[in-house]
Amino acid sequence: MALPILSAEARAGALQQAVAVRKERADLLADIKDGKVSLRDVLGREDPVVARIRVRRLLEALPRIGKIRAGQILREFGISETRRVQGLGTRQRERLLALFPAQE
């Protein structure tokens, strides 16, 4: 599948939009780390910002969860390292929420 040919203006607009989405995603992950936003709130959202976050990054943003523990959780629940939030199944979401009841 060939990429569409964009004008310089369209390319600049797409770049600005991508930067804005990345900033919003980073702000959301920082709010999770600070405890301002709960895991339940994040998993309940259905917007492109949340949908494209990798589950591993989401877990690592939770307080007291590092790279090792996030990897253990992914393996225990059978979630791929590259899985994004939009690709989580209903049971996987429920198990994550049950694992972090304080994050609700």
Automatic annotation (TrEMBL):
In what residue span(s) does the WH2 domain sit?
Answer: 24-42
Which InterPro entries does the entry link to?
Answer: IHF-like_H2TH (IPR055201), IHF_actinobact (IPR047806), Ribosomal_uS13-like_H2TH (IPR010979), WH2_dom (IPR003124)
Q: Which domain of life is it from?
A: Bacteria
Q: What is this protein called?
A: WH2 domain-containing protein
